[in-house]
Amino acid sequence: MFFRAETWRDHCSDLDHPALLSRAMDEAALERVLTLVALIPPGEVAAYGEIGAIAGVGARRVGAILSRYGADLPWWRVTNASGDPPRHLRERAFEHWAREGIAVKPNGRGCAIARWGTDQHVLARRFAAHMRLESPQE
Fold it and tell me: Quick one: DSSP state of residue 87?
């Protein structure tokens, strides 16, 4: 499932909120982030900063986009750089991880991102291929 910003406009009335626009949360960035999250394979995670590096936005912007528009995405596959999901979503994320075979670290906070992290270069290639498929052919 891949996302177009115009589709989200139908479901998210706050896309036109002036505060969001003033923060430059543009539709293209929204589409890039949501598509990248959808491309993370089951059983793997990616850090906010890794998603942001490919999408051309900061890690905090990735988190803001996911908090507003990520409910229908595999949000549990996005963690901080240490492999930890947000504290308030930890238990729900762990339930998803158990189904996908992702092991929780002994400290109980998240996963070992070195073991479960998706290959950022592979993710970037998948994203580029997807964007080529989605762009109008000349």
Answer: G
